[in-house]
Amino acid sequence: MKTAVLGKASPLAVSAVGLGCMGMVSAYPPIPEKKDMVRFAREAFEKGETFFDTAEVYGPYTSEEILGEALADVQDQVQIATKFGFDIQNGVSVGLDSRPETIRKAVDGSLRRLKTDHIDLLYQHRADPGVPVEAVAETVSRLMEEGKVLHWGMSEVSVRTIRKAHALLPLTAVQNEYSLWYRDVENRLLPVLEELGIGLVCFCPLGRGYLTGSLKQADFSSQDVRRGCLVSPMSRPCAPIRDCWTFCRGRQRKRAAPWRSWRLPGSCPAARGSSRSREQQSCAGWWKTWALPISRLLRKNCRRSIRSWQKSRSTARGITPSRKAWWRNSSQSPAKRIKAKAGATSGQGDRWIWTFFKT
């Protein structure tokens, strides 16, 4: 397994493919047995994945317990990232909470469940508007001085917060969603991370499975995070995905190969798996988080394929950014046609279409 380095001021070397552990205990039902997930995490390690991403709120707590049991005897060979930032009462998250005492409580609990004496990468899971970033950075800094935390990062925060936090205590990584169909991070986040020398951990790089072409279901349970997503692309891969597969077919015969060619240098992925088959697919590119540096641009061939498809498709349908208001409101809009065909709720088709066509 190749390695990648997150961050410059406070670098952390991790495996180029990581395993995200939220799907082991939540979000993608049916949820497997705990013993199966212990075996699953261990097999991932044996296949070369040494970067594991979890959080106290996953379960809550059970995701960390799984990793603690699976990796207890190989702690010196892996890097584990976990997160704080939620108020958990009676096994339920009831809101955000990043007060210093809550951070300490969360870290002590994570250390106990992970069966380790330090956390390789500690994230603030979500920014708490009630607690200034200065207080969070100071608390994490003291935990570093005590040896309980080696590196720290933030998840889904604004550019302004990133700059402020990094100035107080250098960030190693920022976690954010990034895939071929969710590219908002390219507008502001990526340039800032490159400027500051901060790594990017991308979650859902394959669009929660939609971009693999393997997802066949047309409906999900109420506990599934994909329930509100548009389902029309599942049974047939859309044009840019087919183009990427065609481009990469001669190089790698894995269904997720296009995203290996599309990834950035200098960031790190955390796969979200919940079965042995998913763990095997994870090593091939399914449920991936790429840990790569953020200095190079996207690979030109795949990017050109996506852009040419966007341009030709939007021109054919009369969709341009300047005419956005027209097609969103028109009864003949492609968004409404797709929405009607897929049975999506009001507005979801529009959001999906605009995400795909914007450049």
Question: How would you describe what is shown here?
Answer:
By secondary structure, the protein is an alpha/beta fold. It has helices at residues 34-46, 62-70, 100-114, 133-145, 159-168, 189-196, 239-248, 257-262, 276-284, 300-316, 324-329, 334-342, 348-357; strands spanning 3-6, 12-15, 18-20, 51-53, 79-84, 86-89, 92-96, 119-124, 149-155, 173-177, 199-203, 271-272, 291-292. The strands form 3 sheets. The chain has a 9-stranded mixed beta sheet with strand order 12-3-4-5-8-9-10-11-13, covered by helices on one side. Strands 1-2 form a two-stranded antiparallel ribbon. Strand 4, helix 2 (62-70) and strand 5 form a beta-alpha-beta unit. Helix 1 (34-46) packs across helix 2, helix 2 runs parallel beside helix 3 (100-114) and helix 4 (133-145) packs across helix 5 (159-168). Residues 231-237, 251-263, 277-306 and 316-359 have low confidence and may be disordered.
